[in-house]
Every structure is written in structure tokens, then in C-alpha cells.
Amino acid sequence: MIRLSTIVTVFAAFCIGILPAAAQRWPTQPILLINGFPPGGGADILARLVAGKLSDALSQQVAVDNRTGANGLIAAASVATARPDGHTILLYTMSMAATAPVLPGVTLTFDPDKDLAPVAVIAGLDNLLYVSNRTSFRTVRDVIDYAKANPDRLTYGSSGVGSSYQLWAAQFAHMAGVRMLHVPFRGGPPAIAEIIAGRVDMMFGNLAEILPHIRSGAVRAIAFTSTPPSPELPGVPTIAESGLPEFRADNWFGIATPGATPREIVERLNLEINRIVKDQGFADRLVSLGYQPRGGSIEDIRQTIMSDRARWKAVIESNNIRAE
Fold this sequence. Notes:
Layout: H1 4-17, H2 21-25, E1 31-35, H3 42-58, E2 62-66, H4 73-80, E3 88-93, H5 94-99, E4 116-125, E5 127-132, H6 140-149, E6 155-158, H7 164-176, E7 181-184, H8 188-197, E8 202-206, H9 207-216, E9 219-224, E10 252-258, H10 263-278, H11 280-289, E11 291-293, H12 298-318
Parallel strand pairs: 1-2, 1-3, 6-7, 6-8
Antiparallel strand pairs: 3-10, 4-10, 4-11, 5-8, 5-9
């Protein structure tokens, strides 16, 4: 039987053969993959996995450069103004593409629809609500009951003001009819450190960055934010199954380039991302870490951005959410 990876490799080689000469010559120097979040988080883990595979595929080093702050918008702005030659690319996130442009109080120094060119979605994430092991919470009902009895005393961390983590918590609080105290950080890892220490009660976040701490017992998984739940944590329910049937929150990571990057380079990069994601060994590795391998066309990621933007705009407006 012919393996899927063999078919993908042959197809990729054929497609590269028919790409314009500019795309075949690119890259001519090392590539910077700009990541807007700190080392050790879900974004950084994926960025480094993809950078390694892209380095092999393109025969040029792809180095990850962490430029943190403003929930990834500092990194996004640096790519939006970079030379559009395909040698600076962005680890693109749903919050950059879909929520920041529609969140009141966020000031963008670039136009995400003109100054960035989406390339492909790499992966979705398994996201969940988890709590400090120093709390007594074991179910969604435990969290809600405590928050109702103690308004504004239950603390939740996030990767920054206006981040998807904050929006999910705000949506949760609205649906549950509770008030909680937001404690923002510059990325997931510093928030996780405070949760482990017991100084912050809980957080909505991605499985990739928290799974080792769940396995060690430092934090406790309560419920996944969307379906299907990850096979890495069998028995952990979804929030929808746990008393808030309308609750749903998901996320994704992708790649973008400066907006004026030649189309043939964007197409070549899309081709390579899809070849990487469809490799069975790489896909299995992503699943084991808490990601959902995706891939797709340039048009697919554009449609994903537009649909997510409309959905989260409605959540933001209905909950009166504003960047602080």
C-alpha cells in the first residue's frame, strides 16, 4: 500500500515544478518566524515545531523570534511593516486576525486585511478551563457556585487584555451569571506560573501549554471549551455538557506574511505548510501535544477569519466587552 506521506511528497514536488520562477528561487536567505508570545506557551511550541519542518522543506534556516506584548499585536505589526519578500513571516492567531479588529479599546497600528496576507491555518487547539490545584474546584458547577457566592473574588488569568482567553472567560461569566476578576499577563506561561502557585484561581487556555502541568498534578482540568474533547484527557467533559449548553470557544494558529508579499511566494508557503501538516507522523505529534492538524487553502483561512470575526463581534457586543 502506498503511504499518504509518499503521495503528498510526490504531489508537492509536482506542484513546485509548476510554480513561477520567483517562488522556486525563494527563499534566498534565512527566514524569521515571528511569534508574539513567550517561550514555553502553546504558540511557541507550535512555532518551533513548524520552523524545524520548514527549515528542512525550504533548505534554509527558519528561526523563531519571540516579540511579545499587546497580545501578539507587537509581533503582528512588525511583520506588517517588514520587507515583503517572504523572509519574515508571522505565527498568525485567531485573536490577531478575528478579535483584535472588532474589540473596542484596541488600537491597531496596521490594517490586518491589507498589511498582512494570510497563508494557511496550521492547527486548531484543544482548549479548556483549568484551575489551581490549591482550589477545591472539580467541576464547572463548583466554579459557578463559588463565583455566585463570592462576586469578583474568583480570579482568572489570561494571556493579555483582549486575548481570546479573556473573551472566553467573559462569555463564560455572562452565560453563568457571575462576576469574576480578570488578571492579565504577557502570555500564557507567566499566568500558568501564578495559577500553579495558587495566586490566581483559574484560566481558560490551550492544552498544549498546560498538559504537562495537568499530568504532574500542579493544575486540574475542569472542562473543554469545545467538542470533541481531546483524547489526551479521556473523561474530561465539555463546558456545554456541564451546565452551559450554548458555550463554545475555539482557537487556531496559522501563518501570515507582509501584505505585499508576491502571490507566488504565498502560494509556495501554503503548499509547504499543507505538506507538513498532512505528514502523518507530524500530525500525530500535534495531536499528542493538544493540537488539531488543519491545513487548507489561502481562501480557506480568509473565510475562517471572516466567520470568526463575525462570531466574536457578536459575543463582544452582547457582553459589552472592551479592552481595558
